[in-house]
Amino acid sequence: MLKKIHFLVFLLFLVGNTPTFAQITDTTSVNLLNEFQEVQNAPQKLKLFFNAPNRYEEDSAYDWLEVVNVYLSTSQKTGDSVGVDIYKLMQAQLYHDIGDHDKSIAVAKEAYDRRDSLDTSTTALILHLLDNNYGKLQMYDKQIEVREAKKDLGLTEGVAFYDIYANMGLYRQAMKQYILAVKPTIPDNDYLGLARHHNIVGNYLLMDKSAATAITEYNKANAFLDLFINDISKQKSEKEVFETEYLKAEVKGNIGKCHVFLKSYIESIPYLNESIEVLSEYNNDSYNEQIIDNRLNLAEAHLQLDNNRTAKRLLEDSYNGMSIKHEIKRNRLLAYYYDKVENFKSATLYYKRNERITDSLKANDVSILKQQLVAIVGTSDLENSRKLINEQKLANEKIRNEIQAKDERINLVFISLIFTLLGFAGLVYAYLKSIKNQRLIAEQKHFIENSLKEKESLLKEIHHRVKNNLQMVSSLLSLQTRNTKSKAAIVALEEGKSRVKAMALIHQKLYQNDDLSVIEMQGYIESLINSVQSVYKKGGHNISITVDAEGVELDIDRAIPFGLILNELVSNTFKYAFPESDEDGKIYIHLRKNGEGGYFEYADNGVGLPEDSEERTSGSMGLRLMNRLVNQLQSKLNIDKTKEGVRFSFNFK
């Protein structure tokens, strides 16, 4: 008889189920809820509750909640504060399992407020629970706060941020963060751990639509599993044997999904069939989502191979616990099936179902986007920080003036003592007083220097946070772009994102500099060009770019307009200047500063501006923006249309 082994699923961070007290144990035939009620005290009940391999195998979460509520009420009546804390913690976990994340957060926060009376393991459990709930509600700013609290508590597990990047759709960034955080912790001889690692890297690549590269990672995972199985030097536990079997099944399912993505449908079918068969043997909800995903991909492969009956049977099977993403895919495949058999009425029905789901998701995404913008772009907090800094600067200036006044008074004392000839005793007294004042001055000077260092650190932190906030805005614009069908809106969002990146780069350069008052423009211009160039993947990489701005430094008030102007010019060159080929393309950027003023020139050898460019100026967002920015620099934009390309220039103060 196959023993059911409960082990930690290595993709828990993608679905938000962080392990807590749970230990891997064999299941038994004992009814866990009855055993829970027979345990005498609250701490033992807590341990049984969180160590249970499958609490809901015989009784639902609602059954457990009813029992826990009775114990909680009794503890409240008897004044058992320890019992109240423990049962509230179990109550919060049950609300989470039911899906009522708002209630779970409210109860968990009540428990966290009393953390001074709790031990470290219980506090860690509360933080894990809050982390999971915030992740489910896509409240990533709150999730980050919880993980900072974990770090402060000294926890090392579950404090990285790669899963947040993944939830926001930034799969490449998530993969890089995951590799940096996890790979160094896996020993070279831990073949099972290396297999898990390469499987997760493959998942990120597959979500990023890099299926061909993902297959390479999955094959590495499969090879490490074979090494682990064939390693006779190491005694393997029963748990490790079963975990290896099911991990191998997951990897095969992932390889099958890659083949479907690459339209290699025949190759995908045996991988998907074997994965479904093995995973279905294990009666655990952790694998339900993977089984559903594999079955839908298998149905798609059969549809593409015209095995319509097999595909329909797979699609019409019962799908318990199906996510919205899978429901949309299933409706799409059913609509495609009915289109193929010319049952257009049924096909239309499934298309309409997906339209309703998509409209609902769009409304939800807009609400979440607004909440994230409010949480992330804390402009009022930034303004308050700046006011505090200015006030502190004024206070420091006042201290300097007071010290200077004290110096003057000391000198007057010395002169008056000499001219009044109060005697040697008076001179000694004046000398001792001067020593005392000099010590005071030294202390004040030391205080001022430390204060200035603190303000400089604060300014760097502000620029760093502004840069991070602008990058988050750019990421949110990217998310919005994916949910937008209008080409004009997509172009506008991409342009906005490019401008946000140009401003973010200014703040990045500032906090990286030792001098926070100016920006070195040569490095900034080169970084900005690289940023713009990465947006236009199909062009711009063969253009010869010359930047002549060595030694030029500008303050932030002039650097931001320059960055936005240059962003517009380089973007326009990449988009319009070389419609046929950019093999011989050239861009020349010249920036010089003379005293208080300076000169800027930008030229390319592209097709130039159209004849009616002057009439279009009033309707062009880019040209209007550049003219306003040049006016902000107290200058006027000159446009020179030559036979080859175009040249923009202006003087500035």
3D structure, described in words:
The chain has 653 residues and is mainly alpha-helical. It is 69% helix and 6% strand. It has 25 helices and seven strands. It has helices at residues 12-15, 32-38, 42-51, 61-78, 81-98, 101-113, 120-136, 140-153, 162-167, 171-182, 191-207, 211-230, 238-261, 265-280, 288-304, 308-316, 324-340, 344-376, 379-420, 424-482, 487-512, 521-535, 556-577, 613-617, 621-632, and strands at residues 518-520, 544-548, 553-555, 586-594, 597-604, 638-641, 646-652. Strands 2-4-5-7-6 form a five-stranded mixed sheet, with helices on one face. A hairpin with a 4-residue loop joins β6 (638-641) and β7. α4 (61-78) runs antiparallel to α5, α5 runs antiparallel to α6 and α17 runs antiparallel to α18 (344-376). The longest helix is centred in the C-terminal third of the chain and has 59 residues, at 424-482. The termini are far apart.
